[in-house]
């Protein structure tokens, strides 16, 4: 009887251990499957997070076609934040670069290569228009000209200065007034009016800032000059 009872006990223990082993194996398989699912989901989530929208040159909204230069520019904000001019992912003028100033800010770019040629700013409030006129006369054919106002870009402008800028393709320069915000991209030797120009009038009833209108921004693709 004692052996029979012991044998029964061994059988019971063996069954218990076998049952525990089977359950543990099934549990581990399920855990492995769940973990695999979790890891796969994590990988997909990470992949989706890493799939960012493409970034184009100068942060413009779409890529430029071949033989075009990407550009983006903005006027100054009141008399606090200077203008910014970017061409082909190179910031040519900005407050950070410390090469902007009150008045008309101008960057000259080689129309064939996209290379920066020069940057200048001309104070049209407390300065003299003569240096601006002389500089405009020195610009060579085939040069891309980008201009942006800061604070006030019009008070000292005279008819000759406006005519020279109009010859670069501007249509708004004749109406540019005190503290208007204006950005323009044209070229020396251009045969038509430039499509790249934005102008907001200084109007106390609609100004975003107390004495200045809102910032104007513009982006686009400049055709490369061909021989």
UniProtKB/TrEMBL annotation:
Gene Ontology molecular function terms on file: carbohydrate binding
The ILEI/PANDER domain, residue ranges: 102-189
Sorted alphabetically, the keyword list is: Disulfide bond, Lectin, Membrane, Secreted, Signal, Transmembrane, Transmembrane helix
Any idea where this protein resides? Secreted
Residues passing through the membrane, by range: 6-23
Q: Which domain of life is it from?
A: Eukaryota
Q: What coarse category fits the chief subcellular location reported for this protein?
A: secreted
Question: What does the entry list under GO cellular component?
Answer: extracellular region
Cross-referenced InterPro entries, in alphabetical order?
A: FAM3, ILEI/PANDER_dom, ILEI_FAM3C
Q: Which family does it belong to?
A: Belongs to the FAM3 family.
What is the name of the protein in this document? FAM3C protein
Q: Which species? A: Nesospiza acunhae
């Amino acid at each position: 009887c004692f052996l029979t009872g012991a044998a029964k006990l061994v059988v019971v223990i063996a069954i218990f251990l076998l049952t525990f082993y089977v359950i543990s194996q099934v549990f581990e398989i399920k855990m492995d499957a769940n973990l695999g699912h979790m890891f796969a989901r994590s990988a997909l989530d990470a992949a989706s997070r890493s799939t960012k929208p493409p970034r184009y040159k100068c942060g413009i909204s779409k890529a430029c076609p071949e033989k075009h230069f990407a550009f983006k520019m903005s006027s100054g904000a009141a008399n606090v934040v200077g203008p910014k001019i970017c061409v082909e992912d190179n910031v040519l003028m900005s407050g950070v670069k410390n090469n902007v100033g009150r008045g008309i800010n101008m960057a000259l770019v080689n129309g064939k290569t996209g290379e920066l040629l020069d940057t200048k700013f001309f104070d049209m409030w407390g300065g003299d228009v003569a240096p601006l006129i002389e500089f405009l006369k020195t610009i060579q054919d085939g040069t891309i000209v980008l201009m942006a106002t800061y604070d006030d870009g019009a008070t000292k402008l005279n008819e000759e200065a406006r005519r020279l800028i109009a010859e670069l393709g501007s249509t708004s320069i004749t109406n540019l007034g005190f503290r208007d915000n204006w950005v323009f991209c044209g070229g020396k030797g251009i045969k038509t009016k430039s499509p790249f120009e934005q102008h907001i009038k200084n109007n106390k009833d609609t100004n975003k800032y107390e004495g200045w209108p809102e910032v104007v921004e513009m982006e686009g693709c400049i055709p490369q000059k061909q021989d």
